Amino acid sequence: MAKKYTPVIENIEDWPIFKLSEDREAFIKEINEYTLQRILKRSPQEVSDLLAKTIYLERIRIKEEPWKVDPPNESQFWNKIRKRLVRQSLDKEAEEAKASNEEILKKIISAYSQEIVGTFKIKTFRFARKFLYAFFNRLLNTAAQRNFKRIWGGKHELADRLKVMGETDAIRSLMKKGTVVVVPTHFSNLDSILIGYAMDSILGLPSFSYGAGLNLYNTGYTAYFMNRLGAYRVDRRKKNPIYLETLKAMSTLSIKRGANSLFFPGGTRSRSGAMETKLKMGLIGTAIEAQRMICEEDKKEKVFIVPLVLGYHVVLEAKYLIEQHLKKTGKEHFLQIKDASYSRRKIFRFLWKLFSQSSDITLSFGKPMDVIGNFVDNDGKSFDKRGNELDIKDYFKTNGEVKPNLQRENEYTRIVADIIGDRFHKDNIVLSSHLIAFAVFNILLNQNSDLDLYGVLRLPCEDYIFEIDHVCKVVEALKDKLVKMEAAKEIQLSETIQLDTVSLIKHGVKNVGNFHALNPLRYNKTGDLISEDFNTLYFYHNRLVNYNLHKVIAKI
């Protein structure tokens, strides 16, 4: 049974996300004014060009990528905006253009902020919490017991399948010292559900503000819950600067107001299955900007960043994701397939298999840091590498006074992104499935060293048998190296890695991608290993790339 904590904040009415939702209209006005002033710092001509570009891109989006969730009068709105820009701004004197641009900007920003900012309804949250608990409890008991007379009974819970580890006590403490921003890795559409469940039901943390793709609002039931559970809407079709400025303003001001936030710095699911290395700077930068604004107001609250690494033996969308990745990197060598990961039947079957087997799902919370990347203790105090305490305000001072400095804050953002990426790799927990997939795929690569990756992936699976004795030698070498890396705090290992080699391989083969129609790995009749799908095996192998582990087994 997983350890469960008492709630950090007992009353939901005291949760920061609820307080923000209760003040929604004032919050939207704050976003509108903040975004407007940032954009108006540009010259009138630059603003006119920005408006023209935005209108152009939005009209293309409406025509080429319409969604059910889009407002019915959207075309008329942008047509009116375009006409007003042409009549009152373009080719006008600077002062006249400036006044017109400001009015047009206000309308666009207001439309965007109303769309982005969500709400948090306590009744809906409580219902969703009970529903998810009942659903998972029923699923687990049915799958584990195979006894429909005891569907609602039994001892199995989702919490038993989730292994939450790392700096959990520190996070709970920091919730009382300031605002916490959790930045997880992203491998599956199930990530948000599992993270939310773990932080609420196991760690006792209040709900976080998080971004949900606007496409999820196309379905009535999904939209109902998303609109009331604190999610803010993100429309990835909209790439124009005004929308992005509004989105960043929402994130900055919500963090400044004390709303704990969760966003995936990788931006989207990892298509390759590898740990993210190139992180999105925008939302990371909003945490830095929020901290500087807090310091400007001479307040003591701090913003803390907590990396979170998720680990699955099997990813529902693995086959689709890896083929997307290979199509992008290999061009004509691969054809994209339809993403069927949203099928209700498929998700249910996936959850059934995932939770009915002894398959670990790990959530590894990394060391909390301040927005500059300095590690903090449980009281929120920042320390440098030598153990000296630091004052966060000093990082934002110019001539002894806290002031905005875009270039400086951009540099801080790059530094923090690099540190988060480094922590992802160090807080990564190696599962048996990761290890065995890496071992066997590298055997395949070494056997075909004259071929490039795409040539290897095109090889017929039925022609390859991986002798168990050879696999054991490779796994032993990898295990020895990983144990040393763990001692050096370069990676973390699950308990199963401590098994003897034969048991470790059996555990890994049993769990790696066991949902997929074609097994990435399985035993044949002689006890050796075979693969039915090299592409998916490559996906699971990629979890351990970027550690130079291939050098350990190159000559075995």
List its salient traits:
556 residues, alpha/beta, Glycerol-3-phosphate (1)-acyltransferase, 4 domains, 8-stranded mixed sheet, two-stranded antiparallel ribbon, 16 strands
Helix content: 40-55%
Overall number of structural domains: 4
CATH topology of the largest domain: Glycerol-3-phosphate (1)-acyltransferase
Shape: globular
Measured between the Cα atoms of the first and last residue, the distance is: 41 Å
Q: How would a crystallographer describe the biggest sheet?
A: 8 strands, mixed
Q: Average the pLDDT over all residues and give the rounded result.
A: 88
Question: What is the CATH C-level name of the largest domain?
Answer: Alpha Beta
Q: What is the alpha-carbon Rg in Å? A: 25 Å
Number of strands: 16
Strand-residue proportion: 5-15%
CATH architecture of the largest domain: 3-Layer(aba) Sandwich
By DSSP (H or I, 4+ residues per run), the number of helices equals 20
Q: Structural class given helices, strands, pairing? A: alpha/beta
| Low-pLDDT residue spans | 142-156
